[in-house]
Design goal:
It is a single chain. The relative contact order is 0.12. The protein has a 10-stranded mixed β-sheet, sandwiched between helices. Strands 18, 20, 21, 22, 25, 27, 30 and 32 form an 8-stranded antiparallel β-sheet that branches. Strands 1-19-26-31-28-29 form a 6-stranded antiparallel β-sheet, with no helix packed on it. It is about 25% helix and about 25% strand. By secondary structure, the protein is α+β, with helices and mostly antiparallel strands. The chain has 14 helices and 32 strands.
Length: about 800
């Protein structure tokens, strides 16, 4: 039986629990008092070796002493969070060219659904490239291709103003650094594509931006050999590009476009003359219908005049016949004339009737054409469509159409920076992919890039490339582009105040969708990064990603395997370390991971990936949820893990967040994917994943994903139990910063005890919890004599007095 209580204790009790981590405040919906122990267990499925749960929970093994921050090679039993470091910020071994602005003519882009939407946009942007050796060794390890080409990195910005090239120039600090380290770095100007938005494009312009990117890569490939790019000579780029090594980085709508490019690169969507003619016909349908109506009306008037004239001639003939007698010599001739005029009058009336019917049809056609609301495109595009009335005219217009049959490009890495996800992407497969989610994003405030990562995790059973989710705490949407403005909050502002327990009053200026910890300095304590500090972190993440996966610079491998911290050059100025600022989630290729527990099916708790069960003990509430799509929105379908009966989710979906009506105390989860949602009111609740007799051979890491909903921090004690009941509990916080929602440096008590100054954030529900990875090296269990080749259980214990979390993706991974 599932017992439920009120989901909240009193505000005073909540604050007390957050600071002191003590229970017994009461305030429950059942009249208060101490919490009744609550266990969700189930018998093992028939025919399995699932161990039966013990009648009473055994004492949990004590957590090991905290690990040290960096390795101590002299002591092999010292298991550390990090086993390596990575370099960054050193001078590259090349000199960078000056910023070159290229203008290579015009191309066209389209919308997959709205066939009347075709836009003409300029093929232009900026490029920096290596311009010779710098004369110093540097740290660059990229190899030039045998033909002398450098790997290519392409940036694509999002939808800000359409000022000429300003958006594209906003990544020059990255382009310059990449060029100094041996890369040709292009930044595409998509300013003129920004007229394609939610109103006139079915996918907010994703296809259009993808076509612009693909056409640019096509041009680079064909022009590299000759130095002539779409008829424009750029001799300095001749032979400088290695198009077998390409990385693409997109921001905002451009970030969605580069993710979509993975699919578009496999199955191109081009524009043909037939597409142009269809768009032209649709746009000109009303004008053509008006012209046709005028022509038919002219024919009706002509036919009416002819019918009237024929009727008059018939009347004259009849009058003349009536004036003579039957024996008159002219009677027969006049009678024949009447018959002739009668035939002519009938024919003329028939022609008039036919044209009148055609007029009715033409009028209806015009009404239908005028009833169609055409999506707006710019005047230049309209004029071009009107001119391109034949294949020859189209060819002479000078507009380069996107190809539908070019061979795929050698895209080796895709980085999506604060993406939208209008296309609901789920096929970002077989290429290393990273999505960066800034927690202070006030523009794309619902962080749909998390869905791109989540929805693509298990799309390909033969996945060959890793995927990464990067949560950048304190970063906003705009600062990664030097041209974009300081504030990126989505809507207007309002002023309210918050009073802490000691009587301190904060005046809070709520600028739209940004959570409280992201407000501008001066209104309250803020954890928001400044522009230069945010770009320092972004430079490391973006550059190291493409330099590793595109340029094979293996010195960055430890970071992208979770084995090294962010180097000081990627931290805010003056900070030697900043791992609490960035939480990295790694999803390795299919051959390098073994899933133990997810919640993708309604009976996932009864039958996990090992064919066994998961047990939930001493939780106040526990549900397992899938998130289905309905009209582009996530809809939670949750079940009780014990009975599989339908249940309500404990947390609402963050992507349905409405900044105008949102109750800040409503728990929201921004990772809308399969998960167990858990809530407890006494320390020691456990989730146990039964694995039978599992061998971890071939893997080096136990990982799981957790989102902390309440309060700000949660400790998770992770145990492996072998078939001889040997086990050890390790503190998850020793290996991850994912368990504390605010970017605080570990101080010995966080996350088990919330920092007092973070009480304001715990009371708002706007810290934007995401499912982040906690990864524990398996050797940390092995040194305590746990047999890694015979694992029967993975157990998670929550020692805090109360809390709410979501959990998924319990798996073994091989990082090395």
């Amino acid at each position: 039986m599932k017992f439920k209580r009120a989901r909240r204790v009193s505000q005073a009790c909540a604050l007390f629990l957050a600071v002191a981590s003590m229970g017994g405040c009461g305030g429950g919906g059942d009249g208060g008092g101490s919490a009744v122990p609550f266990a969700l267990t189930q018998p093992p499925p028939s025919g399995t070796t699932d161990p039966a749960p013990p009648p009473a929970a055994p004492a949990e093994p004590a957590a090991t002493v905290p690990v040290t921050e960096m390795p101590n090679p002299a002591d092999p039993s010292e298991i550390t969070r990090y086993s390596a470091t990575v370099p960054f910020g050193e001078k590259g071994r090349f000199t960078a060219s000056e910023q070159v602005v290229y203008r290579l003519g015009t191309t066209a882009v389209s919308d997959q659904k709205n066939k009347e939407v075709i836009y003409t946009v300029p093929l232009r942007g900026t490029v920096r490239y290596p311009n010779g050796e710098a004369g110093t060794p540097g740290m660059s390890k990229v190899q030039v291709s045998p033909s002398g080409g450098f790997p290519v990195v392409v940036f694509l910005h999002g939808m800000h103003d359409s000022s000429e090239l300003n958006n594209a120039k906003g990544y020059d600090y990255l382009q310059k650094s990449l060029a100094e380290n041996g890369y040709a770095a292009f930044s595409i100007d998509a300013g003129k594509i920004n007229g394609l938005n939610n109103y006139n494009a079915s996918d907010a312009g994703a296809l259009a931006r993808g076509q612009l990117l693909m056409t640019t890569l096509d041009m680079l490939r064909t022009g590299n050999a000759t130095g002539v790019f779409n008829g424009v000579e750029l001799a300095q780029l001749k032979g400088k590009l290695d198009l077998d090594r390409v990385g693409i980085i997109g921001h905002s709508r451009g970030a969605e476009a580069v993710a979509y490019a993975v699919e578009l690169n496999k199955q191109r969507i081009g524009i043909s003359y037939e597409n142009v003619e269809t768009a032209r016909g649709l746009r000109m349908a009303a004008a053509l219908a008006k012209a046709e109506l005028a022509q038919v009306l002219g024919r009706v008037n002509t036919a009416k005049a002819a019918a009237d004239a024929a009727a008059r001639e018939l009347t004259k003939a009849k009058t003349a016949l009536a004036a003579v007698t039957a024996d008159s010599p002219t009677h027969d001739a006049l009678k024949q004339a009447v018959a002739q005029r009668q035939s002519e009058a009938v024919a003329a009336k028939a022609r008039h009737d036919t044209e009148t019917a055609a007029l009715t049809t033409a009028a209806a056609k015009l009404r239908a054409a005028e009833a169609v609301t055409l999506k707006d495109i710019n005047a230049n595009s309209v004029a071009w469509l009107e001119r391109a009335a034949s294949p020859d005219a189209l060819s002479q217009s000078g507009v380069l159409l996107p190809s539908g049959n070019e061979p795929p490009h050698k895209i080796r890495a895709v980085f999506s920076l604060a993406p939208i996800n209008a296309r609901q992407l789920s096929r970002v497969t077989h290429v290393p992919f990273a999505t960066l989610l800034p927690t202070c994003d006030g523009d794309v405030y619902n962080m749909p890039g998390a869905q791109i990562f989540d929805d693509s995790r298990y799309t390909a059973e033969d996945e060959t490339a890793p995927k990464f989710q990067i949560v950048a705490r304190g970063a906003n949407h705009n600062f990664y582009n030097t041209h974009w403005s300081e504030t990126d909050d989505a809507v207007g502002s309002d002023v309210s105040n918050y009073t802490t327990s000691d009587g301190t009053v904060y005046d809070i200026v709520s600028r739209g969708a940004a959570p409280f910890h992201c407000k501008q300095p001066g209104t309250m304590e803020t954890l928001r990064l400044g522009a230069s500090d945010q770009r320092r972190g972004g430079a490391f993440l973006m550059e190291s990603f493409v330099r590793y996966f595109v340029g094979d610079e293996v010195q960055f491998a430890p970071y992208w395997k979770g084995q090294a911290p962010i180097p000081s050059a990627g931290c805010p100025a003056g900070e030697a370390s900043c791992s609490e600022r960035v939480v990295l989630t790694i999803h390795q290729p299919a051959a390098q991971r073994k899933l133990l527990q997810s919640f993708r099916n309604t009976d996932s708790s009864k039958k996990n990936e090992s064919g066994l069960s998961a047990m939930f003990e001493a939780f106040k509430e526990a549900v397992q949820c899938q998130f289905l799509r309905s009209r582009g929105r996530a809809v939670a379908a949750c079940t009780d893990p014990l009975t599989s009966a339908s249940s309500k989710p404990l947390f609402k979906e963050g992507e349905t967040y409405d900044v105008n009506t949102y109750d800040k105390k409503t728990p929201l989860i921004w990772s809308v994917t399969d998960q167990a949602q858990l809530r407890w009111e006494e320390a020691g609740s456990t989730m146990t994943v039964n694995t039978g007799d599992l061998s971890a051979k071939g893997f080096d890491t136990l990982s799981f994903r957790v989102a902390v909903l309440a309060p700000i921090g949660q400790e998770v004690e992770v145990s492996l139990v072998d078939t001889k009941d040997r086990s050890v509990a390790l503190k998850g916080s020793d290996f991850s910063d994912a368990l504390y929602s605010i970017a605080r440096k570990p101080n010995g008590s966080i996350p088990l005890v919330d920092a007092p100054e973070d009480a304001i954030y715990a009371d708002t529900g706007t810290t934007r919890p995401l499912l982040n990875m906690v990864a524990v090296p398996l050797k940390a269990f092995a040194v305590h004599d746990v047999d890694l080749e015979h694992i029967k259980q993975v157990k998670f214990r929550f020692p805090k007095a109360s809390g709410s979390v979501a959990v998924t993706d319990v798996q073994l991974q091989r990082m090395d």
